[in-house]
Write a structure and sequence with these properties.
single chain; alpha/beta; Dna Ligase, domain 1; 6-stranded mixed sheet; two-stranded antiparallel sheet; 8 strands; ATP binding
């Protein structure tokens, strides 16, 4: 019971609750390092929050010495990095000891160098995180957000990685073998869209596809995502396919391939605001298709809770000849 759990300083969740996954997500975000990193002084006073490795890097030079020592000596940095899949960097941080450095500022400089080395590697790697200053035209695979890429995007990322390491690419004259340029809006944006616009109850109960789509189109994407898309589109002058990439899509045992929406955009309007609006609308339509009648029915038949399904969105270059 809840009362008994409190007596032994434990947490408990009701497995029959309709919000079980949301409750579990909140618990893990707060307790397991999946939320923002909160810089504190030894007194417990909060100084600042950062959301990703890049923001951590930007603030590392400004961290008060007592705060840096507090977090570093308790492995807070390595735990937080590991929760984001940054296992190599987390392991490098965890191996460090106070005795390895003459003072805390030398340790600070070493931490910064470790992060910089990882960032340099990532720029030439197969998947890069989009940043405002990112030259998207020079990178083949970008991620927007920090959540999952979804099934379809994972497959594309694998193909992109394989081709980048393959030795047969240059063996054929006049043939270009590559994955079209891709940017993936990860599932954390989907979660935020559903929660901020309070769409979960409606999405799970409404059966009419058109009504559902109309409601989703009225929802607002996060300001951060809209601004990121605005920056991304500044360097994108080719037609786009806006495609679904859900967690269960292309799953080996419960495939949902073909169940969700794809939209093709010319991306040629002279007004940049209109181009941005079209991309945002297409993303909302893909989100809405997560809860269309056909995927709902299939989910029920394969004994999955629809709340388990999350949707990432692929923004993909359409390849072909340009015609006047």
């Amino acid at each position: 019971s809840l009362e008994m759990a409190r007596k032994i300083s434990s947490n408990v969740l009701n497995k029959n609750s309709s919000t079980l996954f949301s409750d579990l997500r909140d618990f893990m975000m707060y307790n397991f390092g999946f939320g923002d990193f909160i810089f504190k002084l030894p007194s417990g006073e909060e100084i600042r929050q950062v959301s990703n490795v890049e923001e951590l890097m930007d603030f590392f030079g400004e961290i008060p010495e007592e705060s840096l020592d507090y977090h570093a000596s308790r492995n807070h940095f390595s735990n937080w990095l590991a929760a984001r899949g940054e296992f190599k960097l987390a392991n490098q941080f965890r191996k460090l000891k106070i005795s390895d450095f003459k003072d805390i500022n030398e340790r600070r400089d070493h931490h910064i160098k470790l992060i910089q080395n990882i960032q340099k590697t990532r720029r030439i790697g197969p998947v890069a995180e989009f940043r405002p200053k990112t030259k998207s035209s020079k990178i083949n695979f970008l991620r927007i957000g920090s959540g999952s890429l979804g099934g379809k995007a994972r497959g594309l990322a694998f193909a992109n990685t394989y081709l980048s390491q393959a030795d047969f690419i240059d063996q054929f004259d006049n043939i270009i073998i590559r994955v079209p340029k891709v940017a993936v809006v990860s599932t954390d944006e989907f979660d935020q869209f559903m929660e901020v616009n309070e769409l979960w109850e409606t999405a799970l109960s409404l059966d009419n596809n058109q009504d559902l789509e109309d409601i989703f189109l009225k929802g607002r994407l996060s300001r951060n995502l809209v601004q990121t898309l605005k920056e991304f589109l500044k360097e994108v002058d080719y037609p786009l396919a806006i495609r679904s990439s859900s967690l269960l899509e292309d799953s080996q045992y419960q495939p949902l391939a073909g169940m969700y929406a794809t939209y093709m955009l010319p991306n040629s309007h002279e007004d940049s605001k209109e181009r941005l609006s079209q991309v945002c609308e297409a993303i909302k339509r893909v989100y809405a298709s997560t809860f269309f009648e056909d995927p709902k029915t299939l989910m029920e038949n394969i004994v999955h809770r629809h709340e388990e399904e999350k949707m990432a969105v692929i923004i993909m270059e359409m390849v072909g000849k340009t015609h006047d």
